[in-house]
Write a structure and sequence with these properties.
Number of helices: 7
Distance between the termini: 21 Å
Structural class: alpha/beta
Oligomer: single chain
Number of strands: 9
Amino acid sequence: EVTSYYFPENFDDSYLRSLKRYCHQAGVTICGGAIRNDFCVSQEMQRAQIESVKRWIDAYEVLGAPVIRIFAGTVPKEETIDSAKQRCIEACQIAADYAGSKGIWLGLENHGGITAQADDLLEIVNGVNSDWFGVNFDSGNFRGPLDPILELKKIAPFAVNAQIKVEMWQDDQKIPADLELIFSVLKEAHYGGWVTLEYEGQEPELTAIPIHLQTLRALIS
């Protein structure tokens, strides 16, 4: 799952094709893409955000990514969550229509801000009329007073992509994630898309990631 943050600033289609070729020769499937955006910004600034998302949709189409992770953003100061949410829905509709024309899913992630709680996230998702729009299920992002597992259960039926973290938040502290429970949530929702490991743990990556991947593969099977 490739992420826009790490691309060269002025890449072109030639670079994208070479990356696609490299991945294929290395036996790596590009299962999705991730970008950074904020659809809660003012209407004047939102146009640039939408155009940026469209540019990345074009790029990921060349790479063959089936789904792209996007963000909603954060409510600006001195504005209500309802007005920001409506503006976000309108921007997501434009982006989803464009992505759908390319045969690409957009997955809105539960990534704090206006999507910090499942009900707010789902209000945006349900407000967008597109068969190519859903949720990017991030198992480690919910925090605060609500039970994170119950929050994940709410969004799982809408998931078009799933990112699994080995830690979760509880009482404002990170604790080891119950991966078996998280996978049961996805299975109960009949999720059938890709599952990726988004590792943010404390152990060294080169030793920890292979162990966690072995666990995830066992849970998938």
